[in-house]
Write a structure and sequence with these properties.
136 residues; mainly alpha; 43% helix; elongated
């Protein structure tokens, strides 16, 4: 938006003031642009390489040897999803990916079918409170 056009006409006729206003507004718009460009680098969904490693370290989840960015991103996103889960059986399906199932046997055990996880299911999937045994 051209904020300079918002000044009243009699102010717009003052070239020194308008030059000063343009310089101040340019700094503000440059900061907004910078902020918009920095944010994606700190997003799990768009960070790559060392930046993704830094995000994972801040979560306390270091990258394992041999993990690609895609695998590491999957682990981080799954951990985030797990940590925001409300702990109820009713909402567990929202956190499972296609082809994964988790059945609470209501006796302290669950049956899990989650092919292709890069880590044990108990570390990535939302396991209901009080579960002592997980069979994969």
């Amino acid at each position: 938006m051209d904020y300079l056009s918002l000044f009243p006409g009699y102010i717009q006729e003052k070239p020194k003031f308008m030059a000063l206003a343009a310089a101040v507004l340019r700094q503000a718009t440059d900061l907004i642009t910078l902020a918009k460009n920095i944010a994606p680098g700190f997003s799990v969904g768009s960070a790559v390489g060392i930046q993704l490693d830094a995000i994972g370290e801040s979560f306390g989840i270091p990258r394992q040897a041999g993990w690609s960015d895609a695998t590491y991103r999957t682990v981080l996103l799954r951990k985030l999803k797990r940590n925001t889960w409300d702990g109820t059986n009713a909402t567990v399906s929202e956190y499972l990916e296609t082809g994964e199932t988790l059945n609470d046997n209501c006796d302290g055990t669950v049956n899990v079918h989650a092919p292709g996880l890069p880590m044990p299911a108990k570390e990535l999937l939302p396991i209901p409170m009080g579960v002592k045994s997980i069979s994969v």
